[in-house]
Amino acid sequence: MASIHKEFVVDATPDAVWDVLSDYGAVHERLAPGFVTDTHLSSDTRTVTFADGTIVHERLVDLDHETRRVAYSVVGGSLHPAHHHASMQALAEADGRTRFVWHTDVLPDTLAAPIAEFVEQGSAVMRQALEGGTGTTTG
């Protein structure tokens, strides 16, 4: 099984980051605008459309307000993993900043490279949105 792990520090408070991250049905508007072009929420599953045309169905596994963590699994769409589980978490850093942690486990291993590329691209967009594009910056 391949594991993809990405962390970055955001110049925004953990509560502000969590406010965006926990809005499970608004990824295209708040967390990754432009990288994600559309999100539709139906019960516990969201359909996410990426700018490159990739569409995935992600089932919500956990939305934990206390630990500021969301977990989800790809259950359909253009990608066909045998297994996919991801989580994103907003952790407190010094000076009111936030450590954003994104971890993904995926099978088969051949999906690791394209998913890692998505994580890299998505992380850059998310950081920018969280620091300035959504009005959640500190200070």
Verbal overview:
The protein has 139 residues and is α+β, with helices and mostly antiparallel strands. Helices cover 25% and strands 44% of the residues. The protein has three helices and seven strands. It has a seven-stranded antiparallel sheet. The longest helix has 22 residues, at 112-133. Pfam families: Polyketide_cyc2. This is SRPBCC family protein.
Quick recap:
The protein is α+β, with helices and mostly antiparallel strands and 139 residues long.
Helix-strand blueprint:
Blueprint: E1 2-10, H1 14-21, H2 27-31, E2 36-42, E3 45-50, E4 55-64, E5 69-77, E6 83-92, E7 98-107, H3 112-133
User: In percent, how helical is the residue content?
Assistant: 25-40%
Low-confidence stretches: 134-139
The geometry reads as globular
Strand line-up of the largest beta sheet: 1-7-6-5-4-3-2
Largest sheet: 7 strands, antiparallel
| Tally of helical runs | 3
**Terminal residue distance:** 41 Å
| Order of helix and strand elements from N to C terminus | EHHEEEEEEH
Average pLDDT metric: 93
* Proportion of residues in β-strands: 35-45%
Structural class determined from secondary elements = alpha+beta
